[in-house]
């Protein structure tokens, strides 16, 4: 083969390899897209796990509310401030000193 034909053959072969590699690296379904999708999948799986745990907690609460009065009583006490008949209700008010009180006060003369 002549050197000129060999050069043309090698350049043609190089162009063919580049044309075949382009979709692998930059086209749809490329390595970059696959890595990005894997990252999105792992984030979605974490979100799904969090939501599944929340669903389990809500299902347990629904079962508890359907079958037991303790959960209903607890909700009535905490959310509605209800008190059972015969109980004494004590409301404790915590006072906080005003801002700056007792700090670096100069003694009176």
Helical region count?
Answer: 3
How many strands, which pairing sense, and closed or not: the largest β-sheet?
none
> What is the string of helix and strand elements?
HHH
Can you count the beta strands? 0
Mean pLDDT: 84
The span between the termini is 113 Å
**β content, as a range?**
under 5%
> Given the helix and strand composition, which structural class is it?
mainly alpha
Give the proportion of residues in helices: 55-70%
Task: Compute the number of structural domains.
Answer: 1
Summarize this, please?
With 109 residues, this protein is mostly helical.
Topology:
Blueprint: H1 3-26, H2 31-67, H3 69-80
Helix pairs in contact: 2-3
Q: What this model shows, in words?
A:
This protein has 109 residues and is mainly alpha-helical. It has one domain (3-80). 67% of the residues lie in helices and 0% in strands. It contains three helices and no strands. It has helices at 3-26, 31-67, 69-80. The N and C termini lie far apart (113 Å).
Q: What are its keywords?
A:
mainly alpha, 0% strand, 109 residues, elongated
